[in-house]
Backbone:
């Protein structure tokens, strides 16, 4: 290390700041005459965050080898708070809701038209404005400069906001003062002016200020006050990196989170020293899969330190269901059957009120109540549901309704809605489900504290609409994280990027080294344009990028082994840092330019992986069912999306719920559209007949007949759906009649079947399905599949067969039309025809094979990939595991309450 006369100490790249700091503290004590120092309380150590402080104490303990008094240990926020408590007496820390509410009040008096007048809308919108005001305050910026800045090139609305920022900021500060609240910038402003070192730290004679860079103005002023009491101030930091030390870097290309985690498990399986190994998790969403799919294989402790989004917790998913049930409640008080069923099927609800029993009796009761209901279609009142339930279940239903519905029907303030959720938490805490999931207790406590904060907030008694209440709560949850403090320091370290600052490890494994994650900075992440921020002296996105790059380079350069894993495919690309490392290796001649094996591709062998959580092993009976099964393209697609859903639907053959959900693509609506088109095209099968005067009249008649059969009485939603369908089907027929080429529909609802030989043992797998429509278009045959909602088209970039289900889900997306093309060619002994999805929503065709020949794409890509998938389905060692990658898919899955998710 190098020491300057200004008491600044620089730790070289590859060094260990914590080790050097511990040695320095010990040396200072020895030089003061203490042969065996045990009291370090006259020293204070300040880091940007608390994590390095724990490592420092650990190092000192290893050196002293006996009980000792540690230094005063502070993060810079701790330092500001210690002084602010005395300098701002009586001021309470402001919660996020307090701050956004005070800003709402301030913005409301500003006269800016763009600001929403509804607090719920503002809560979702105002977070960016709040961050801007905080940034300005931490920079101690003279806001009179803002008004003098040119608004040229800014949108008018933004220019108006910038012009009024001084008055908004002053009104915000006044509102906080009126409420007796203190924000982080207020604490820093007070302490940077009034910190009295001799008063607040009377025993400290030396401050070690460690690991800081890119400080704000208020942070700089606060640290400068440390020398005002005559104490020494020693600044310790890493030497800025100039290049990558890539000799120990290994690069891996994965295709999704789970394949990344497989690689983590593989790297760890080669051996690791838990105390000197860290897995770095830039995206907190990867934490739970990492714990359940990788670390469960090792008999080793682990330690987590990062901020996890509360919005991704299981409790929040459950609470969001409670809110959605209220959002879809009718004006007459009826509950939408589909949403009610989803809530009552949730594992938490079953554990809290029904002793874990199946929700089938409740489903039957709500269906019965809905049919008899005199209120809005597909809705039912709680009293009718209770009356229709079996007597043995009625009391449980009443208790569930009293906790899950009644408090939220009456709620009109944030305090009331948070009170309802706090009572739910009390009930939930008494169940085993509250302890059944990773970090369940941390999420529980995090949510409890957040709700208690809402109940105490300045906005707690503010009356607002039901929609605004939900917007406010979602905004507050969206801004919250659950901190995993990561103490004591035992086992393998699992760290966020911020928590890894200023630490050194012998081996690191970094997930998600992707552009947009590292660096995770957007040029549009601020309300103020970058040129304006630069003029005002505020850090821009480029400054933040430099800071992230410096911290990441220091972390990588200090490790003997650095394993960097990234996802690739679709819109995801590897980070610029990976590109820099490769370029530096090429420039140094360590690898040839364009050398392909510099990055290792991750492959997945499903049967070699341990059974995941929420999985069902394959029994002999199950394998027998699979052997006799005729697979439809939709069942194959279902397995590709989620093996657990395939198990419930195709192996157990559980009945799927058929409730109307308000979307045109809901079950029953698709059947209605298909039947209309089948009957209509049977009468008008070609371009010429479609142009006849009777075509439209006939189509309207068929729509009315089929709507009565499938949608029920023409009122409410059924009426709206019928009329929307009428419009879209008429548009589709008009579009067909305008085709450039002549065409003729030669078959509708064409049944096809065939056998596919799978595996080296020659297993014969039966496949069958029904093609919506077969066209003759000039010399070509086309297969058409109607879609009333969303659908998935295979990627056009496929060039080779895929091995893993996860890859297929991401890239192939659906086997339906490729399979129909293959089955049709086998049945008719012709070349595989072209195929397209026909969107009745957008009135367009999406061709599956693009410009490639169907036979070539089938033989080279789709059939080999399908054989790999079918081999996994029949593999006794590959369980039916729940796949919860796609939140939206899980949310509307008919079996979501059964897989234990």
Residues:
């Amino acid at each position: 290390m190098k020491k300057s006369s200004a008491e600044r100490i620089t730790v070289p790249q590859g060094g260990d700041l914590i080790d050097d700091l511990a040695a320095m503290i010990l040396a200072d004590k020895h030089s003061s005459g203490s042969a065996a120092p045990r009291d370090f309380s006259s020293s204070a150590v300040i880091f940007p965050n608390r994590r390095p402080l724990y490592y420092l104490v650990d190092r000192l303990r290893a050196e002293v080898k006996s009980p000792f008094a540690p230094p005063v240990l502070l993060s810079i926020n701790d330092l500001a708070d210690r002084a602010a408590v005395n300098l701002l007496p009586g001021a309470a820390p402001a919660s996020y809701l307090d701050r956004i509410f005070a800003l709402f009040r301030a913005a409301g008096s500003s006269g800016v038209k763009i600001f929403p007048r509804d607090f719920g809308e503002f809560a979702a919108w105002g977070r960016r404005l709040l961050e801007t005001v905080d940034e300005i305050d931490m920079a101690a910026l003279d806001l009179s400069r803002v008004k003098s800045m040119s608004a040229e090139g800014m949108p008018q609305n933004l220019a108006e906001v910038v012009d009024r920022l001084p008055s908004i900021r002053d009104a915000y500060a006044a509102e906080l003062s009126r409420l007796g609240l203190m924000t982080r910038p207020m604490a820093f402003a007070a302490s940077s002016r009034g910190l009295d070192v001799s008063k607040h730290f009377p025993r400290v004679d030396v401050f070690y200020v460690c690991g800081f860079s890119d400080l704000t103005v208020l942070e700089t002023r606060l640290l400068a006050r440390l020398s005002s009491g005559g104490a020494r101030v020693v600044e310790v930091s890493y030497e800025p990196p100039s290049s990558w030390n890539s000799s120990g870097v290994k690069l891996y290309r994965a295709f999704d989170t789970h394949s990344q985690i497989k690689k983590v498990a593989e790297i760890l399986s080669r051996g690791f020293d838990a105390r000197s190994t860290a897995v770095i998790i830039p995206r907190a969403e990867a934490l739970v899969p990492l714990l359940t799919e990788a670390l469960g294989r090792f008999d080793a402790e682990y330690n987590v330190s990062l901020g996890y989004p509360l919005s991704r917790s299981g409790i929040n998913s459950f609470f969001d269901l409670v809110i959605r049930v209220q959002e879809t409640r009718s004006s007459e008080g009826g509950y939408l059957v589909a949403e009610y069923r989803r809530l009552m099927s949730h594992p938490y609800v079953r554990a809290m009120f029904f002793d874990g029993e199946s929700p089938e009796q409740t489903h039957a009761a709500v269906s019965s109540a809905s049919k008899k209901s005199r209120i809005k279609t597909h809705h039912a009142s709680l009293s009718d549901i209770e009356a229709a339930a079996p007597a043995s279940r009625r009391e449980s239903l009443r208790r569930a309704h009293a906790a899950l519905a009644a408090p939220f029907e009456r709620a009109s303030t944030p305090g009331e809605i948070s009170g309802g959720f706090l009572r739910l938490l009390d009930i939930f805490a008494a169940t085993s489900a509250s302890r059944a999931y990773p970090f369940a207790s941390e999420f529980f406590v995090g949510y409890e504290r957040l709700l208690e904060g809402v109940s105490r907030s300045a906005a707690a008694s503010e009356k607002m609409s039901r929609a605004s209440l939900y917007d406010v709560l979602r905004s507050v949850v969206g801004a919250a994280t659950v901190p995993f403090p990561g103490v004591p320091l035992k086992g393998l370290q699992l760290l966020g990027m911020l928590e890894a600052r200023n630490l050194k490890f012998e081996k690191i494994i970094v997930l998600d080294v992707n552009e947009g994650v590292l660096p995770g900075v957007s040029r549009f992440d601020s309300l103020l344009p970058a040129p304006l921020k630069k003029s005002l002296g505020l850090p821009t996105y480029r400054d933040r990028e430099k800071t992230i790059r410096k911290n990441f380079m220091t972390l990588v350069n200090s490790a003997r082994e650095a394993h960097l894993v990234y996802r690739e495919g679709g819109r995801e690309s590897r980070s610029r840092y990976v590109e820099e490392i490769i370029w530096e290796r090429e420039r140094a001649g360590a690898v040839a330019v364009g050398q392909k094996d510099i990055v290792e591709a991750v492959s997945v062998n499903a049967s070699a992986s341990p059974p995941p959580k929420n999985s069902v092993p394959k029994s002999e009976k199950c394998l027998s069912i699979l052997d006799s099964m005729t697979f439809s393209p939709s069942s194959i697609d279902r397995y590709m999306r989620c093996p657990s859903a395939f198990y419930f639907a195709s192996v157990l053959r559980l009945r799927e719920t058929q409730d109307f959900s308000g979307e045109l693509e809901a079950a029953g609506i698709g059947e209605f559209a298909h039947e209309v088109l089948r009957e209509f095209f049977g009468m008008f099968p070609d371009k010429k007949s479609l142009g006849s005067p009777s075509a439209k009249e006939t189509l309207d008649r068929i729509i009315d007949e089929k709507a009565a059969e499938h949608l029920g009485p023409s009122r409410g939603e059924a009426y709206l759906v019928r009329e929307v369908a009428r419009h879209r089907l008429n548009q589709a027929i008009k579009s067909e009649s305008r085709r450039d080429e002549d065409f003729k529909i030669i078959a509708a609802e064409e049944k096809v079947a065939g056998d596919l030989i799978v595996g080296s043992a020659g297993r014969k797998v039966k496949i069958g399905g029904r093609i919506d429509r077969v066209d003759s278009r000039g010399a070509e045959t086309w297969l058409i599949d109607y879609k009333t909602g969303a659908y998935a088209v295979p990627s056009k970039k496929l060039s080779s067969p895929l091995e893993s289900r996860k890859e297929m889900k991401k890239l192939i997306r659906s086997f339906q039309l490729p399979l129909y093309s293959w089955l049709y060619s086998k049945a008719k002994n012709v070349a595989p025809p072209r195929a397209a999805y026909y969107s009745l929503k957008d009135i367009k065709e999406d061709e599956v094979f693009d410009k490639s020949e169907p036979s070539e794409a089938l033989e080279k890509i789709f059939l080999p990939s399908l054989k790999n998938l079918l081999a996994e389905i029949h593999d006794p060692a590959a369980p039916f595991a729940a796949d919860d990658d796609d939140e939206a898919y899980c949310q509307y899955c008919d079996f979501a309450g059964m897989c234990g998710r």
User: Anything to note?
Assistant: The CA atoms of residues 253 and 833 lie 36 Å apart. The chain has five domains: 7-87+189-238, 92-179, 249-305+492-601, 311-483, 620-898. Residues 311-483 form one domain.
